Amino acid sequence: MPKQITDLKKKWYVLHTYSGYEDNVARNLKQRIESMGMEDKIFDVLVPKETKIKIKNGKRKTVEERIFPGYVLVEMIVADDSWYVVRNTPNVTGFIGSGVTPTSISEEEINTLKKRMGVKEPKYKIDVAVGESVKIIDGPFKDFDGKISAIDEEKGKIKVLVSMFGRETPVELDFLQIKKI
Q: Is the torsion defined by CA of 23, 29, 32, 38 positive or negative?
């Protein structure tokens, strides 16, 4: 244990945890803060997550993913007792910092992260245009090539003309089911 650490300003620090245990660490730490009366030194615990769109079995799903797997953010005043409570929380492997001194992260970084976390509906990033050639990478037309005939950015859908049996057939796909050639 370091010799008398004290930084009387509350700041955000990054904890390293075992990957997959971030929520578990956050829950345990919140309980420890309460049971050990540390509310005046440890103020907030955050597992940064963002919403993403994935395609699974041809269906669009919105999933929450950790932005920094293996890390938990904690807002605290670093003193011997608060450091001890955080450091000895199960599945916490340490603070990010040099030597035994935790390094705080800036308010700007925290604000940027909170903005990123606050986005509830992920935006569709459609980086193709009508007339471009694409390869279909998911669904019943997987591995077919085609040309984009229409784009519906609002719904994240794309119409692709696929050449089948000597004719061009329009197929409506999710933008996640195609990639540029």
A: negative
